[in-house]
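Section handout 9: paired folding examples.
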Amino acid sequence: MAPVRRLLALTLGDERFALDVGVVREVLDFGDLTRIPRMPAHVRGVVNLRGAAVPVVDLRTRLGMGSVERTVHSRIVIVEAPTPPDAGGGITLVGALADAVREVIEIDAVAVEPPPRMGTPVPADVLAGIFRHGGRHVLLLDADRLFDDEEPAGAPAAIAAQPPSQPLPRPLPQPLPRTPSLSPADGQSQARSVPADAAPGTPVRFGGGGA
């Protein structure tokens, strides 16, 4: 059986993007953010996540695509991003602000191709690959590179990385229900999609760990 990748599909403007579910901790509604002085322009503020102040990065601003407007569809995706060794290593939680979170999809791993070096709406160095789903190209974001400089100056100690000896707790992965394979119309790879069950105001939790 061919290896399968589980990805969280996002919308930024008119473009489709995805993040590996293995780095996604949970999905939140776009609630109130606290702005901290001297934060970069693409950091919209911090969100209180069960007592911890987590910086929230506007993905559209980070990628040079304008900014995310607050709507009923906009969401904050809490992502586990690696902390540089010179900053202590380990994992830091970062919020990724998107126009919408669409669904969790499953695709054959071989369907992900290397990202093109030109012709994409965002810098190629933050992309992990490209694939087709639902008749459209989807850009797979590389969380390691996307958030590698998002430690804001003067940020509260609560968002500092935990040392490697104290890894962040990971909930047990929940199996996704299987759905029939999509027919590979117009040359796209076979993919299986599962709607994200994000009820308004209710976090969507993911299992952590790669597919």
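Moving on to protein 2 of 2.
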Amino acid sequence: MPKFPPKNYIEAVNFPQEITLNPIGVVHSPYKERHGTPRQSQLQSIPKDYQPVLAQIELFPHIIPAIALKDMESFERIWIISWLHLNKHWNPTVILPRGPRVRRGTLATRAPHRPNPIGLSAPKLIKVEGLVLHVEGIDLLDQTPILDIKPYVSYCDAFPDARCGYVSEMEKAREHEVDVFGKGTLRE
């Protein structure tokens, strides 16, 4: 087989000045307001009576065919990439709702107010029914637009021994804001 000369793919296309994303679905969650909505889909230390809420991710049939979810049900967790559409502004530093009242760099936090308000959640996948994914432990508000869904793969998505800076210190001290653990379920 002949050897082809190397190609420089990065010079073939200009760097994008703007990126357009379209929602592929929507969250149906019991959370209607920010206060009382969990800050993460899972935390290390949780109260013994904590019950994660149930929610649904509805994918749009005009964008996603059902076959795109083939084999998804065999995964225990999924990554949900969302657009935090209620967040219109951001600051380079934030004060977190738990821990010491000090300013942290926004990109060193999971604050929803970001330069591009992209959310990342890893809820437990309960079942798939057509274009609806039933999940447990959601941290997203009702009607949040979904940009993408990917399977959670533990060998490359989990680094349990990784340093987590100030977050590890707060978890060790078991510091939580009052409403970090949302309650309730979405009723059909």
